[in-house]
Amino acid sequence: MTASPPVDPFDLVIFGGTGDLALRKLIPAMFHRFLDGQIPSESRIIGIAREATDDAGYRDTLQKALIEGGGDKQKIDTFLKQVHYRSLDAKKDEGWDDFAQLIAEQADHIRVFYLSTSPELFTHICNRLGAHELNKGKSRVVLEKPIGHDLASANEINEDVARVFDESQTFRIDHYLGKETVQNLLALRFGNALFEPLWNAEHIDHVQITVSETLGVGRRGSYYDHSGALRDMVQNHILQLLCMVAMEPPGSLAPNALRDEKLKVLNALKHIDSSNAAQLTVRGQYRAGASEGKSVPGYVEELGEGKKSNTETFVAIKAEIANWRWAGVPFYLRTGKRLPARLSEIVVAFKHVPHSIFDASAGTLAQNRLVLRLQPDEGVKLWLTIKHPGPGGLRLRHVPLDMSFAEAFGVQQPDAYERLLLDVVRGNPTLFMRSDEVVAAWRWADPILAAWAASGEAPRAYQAGTWGPSAAVALIERDGRTWNEDSEDEE
Ligand code: NAP
Hints:
Layout: E1 10-15, H1 20-35, E2 44-49, H2 55-68, H3 73-80, E3 83-87, H4 96-104, E4 110-115, H5 122-131, E5 139-143, H6 151-162, E6 170-172, H7 180-191, E7 204-212, H8 221-224, H9 229-246, H10 255-268, H11 277-280, E8 281-287, E9 289-291, E10 294-296, H12 299-303, E11 314-319, E12 331-336, E13 343-350, E14 369-375, E15 379-387, E16 396-404, H13 405-409, H14 416-426, H15 435-455, E17 460-463, H16 470-477
Parallel strand pairs: 1-2, 1-4, 2-3, 4-5, 5-6, 7-12, 8-17
Antiparallel strand pairs: 7-13, 8-11, 9-10, 11-12, 13-14, 14-15, 15-16
Helix pairs in contact: 1-14, 2-3, 6-15, 9-10, 9-15, 10-15
The chain binds NADP nicotinamide-adenine-dinucleotide phosphate.
The site of NADP nicotinamide-adenine-dinucleotide phosphate has 21 residues, from helix 1.
């Protein structure tokens, strides 16, 4: 990664500093930035949680996590000198004076308060940060998803946070926006003359966005059962990806220019409610099956004995954007747990050529497809039709122009959190969601949830290790299309 300009000294305070997200993502991200010389030596990382430990105890925990992640022990120990810990309960007053004093020791530092806790703590934490006047000066707050579980609760969180932090200080993180491929979508669309003239209903047949996981709910069952795939994945990540594909060219990459365009897309999404949810959506829930060669239990078994649930672990949706650019172009969205592969990708399928000059013996003419892979191996493929090399008549082949970033640039791409955390320090909110985007996304999702609840129908069963219920295949196939299977020469 090309080194970005250094940032000013900062304090990063992680509420929920002992949690899964902090240990797996946030701390490793900061360690990698440290290795790249991006963290000024006076900067501090301060973990906060209720657990009664101290700086030394917290550093031990982090050391273990970073060594497990393959870090060099000596470098880890140097990094950990910048790490501190304070034990406090976000819901209680004790401990906050001591914490505020620690922050006051470096009054000129940029302050980033990262709320890596359950959202029910957001109001408590913000109120106490406000009461100790820690929201002043160069302070910012980062909110992890989920921001609410419906429109009303999202509004409540936004209002509570806004009483303490201005919108310009509030960074709602969606780590999908920090992924290299998503940034590359901007570069592809707006840095090449090739695509933009074709980027519309006249030339694009449809778009697919898939975010699939092989894992089940595991230990997150009690959280997930109140959420489900629509809230957990579609309302945030998938809609954000859809916005990046569908938005009009912003005038610049200035934060509000980009976010204004995304908001227009969200506002233009066609409503799905009780009148059309049965045609346009499919919900599923996994049953026992096989994943990565092992037998795995079904969703309700994972929840625990005697549990019942109507929560969807899979959803497929045919969405549409009601504007001139996209009228009539379906956006097929799909996400689920316990699917056959872990992948996130956007597929832009172009229309067929209007007339074939080739004999039937040449083979079928496939659509051009632009496939943007976000994970596991980030990259871009543009599928083209060429002639099969050699003699034997003209036979057509469908092959990709393939740019795997790891191969093309010879480096492991930085994790999205690395970029996003330093964007917060720099005060650049371009890749973060504004409150009106969150509200618009819930405005679209709420009627779908209401329609499902009103129907009283259970989610359709699918076997773990398959691509969801057969109705999800029917959703796209009845339009004469298929879900993308990215295999070479499949035609
Ligand atoms: P987690 O493993 O359950 O960690 C929660 C953290 O909050 C722990 O450090 C916990 O420590 C602390 N905490 C709980 N109650 C507290 C209180 N009253 N006062 C102070 N600290 C308290 O959760 P997580 O997986 O890290 O997720 C954190 C948030 O990020 C959740 O909202 C989750 O939905 C979201 N998120 C997580 C991921 C992920 O990959 N894990 C991804 C995206 C979003 P103590 O119990 O010691 O206080």
